[in-house]
Amino acid sequence: MSKTILIVDDSKTVRNLVAFIMKKEGFKVVTAEDGLDGLERLYSADRIDLIISDINMPRMDGFTFIKSVREQEAYRDIPIVVLSTEGQEKDIQAGLSIGANMYMVKPAQPEKMLKNVKMLLG
């Protein structure tokens, strides 16, 4: 059974690019355009195995989204990768401290992204 990845990013271009990379590798993909949309997709999906989320988004940013996911028992153990243009040390530390498993700065190399996703999925 293939794993399902939720991609949360307000940029349609980024969502489509990351989705293309993941689908090519055999993953199922669900996309969302911000944190609120991401939570709706998470709740309505049969199963989400990993989340890739941006930080800067309208309505609900990535930090709030990740905190919301981590506060819920059912979703607490889903690996989360932050994929953001915010690459300063304070941003990375903030992302990891609220529960992200990994923080990658855009533009991320597709090979590195896939390697990290596969590692987090075991």
Automatic annotation (TrEMBL):
Phosphoprotein keyword on record: yes
InterPro entries, per the entry: Bact_response_regulator, CheY-like_superfamily, Sig_transdc_resp-reg_receiver
Presence of keyword Transport: no
One GO term of the biological process aspect: phosphorelay signal transduction system
Response regulatory domain boundaries: 4-121
Modified positions (4-aspartylphosphate) in chain numbering: 54
Superkingdom of origin organism: Bacteria
SMART domains: REC
Pfam (any one): Response_reg
Entry keyword set: Phosphoprotein
Protein name per the record: Chemotaxis protein CheY
Organism: Fundidesulfovibrio magnetotacticus
Source lineage: Bacteria, Pseudomonadati, Thermodesulfobacteriota, Desulfovibrionia, Desulfovibrionales
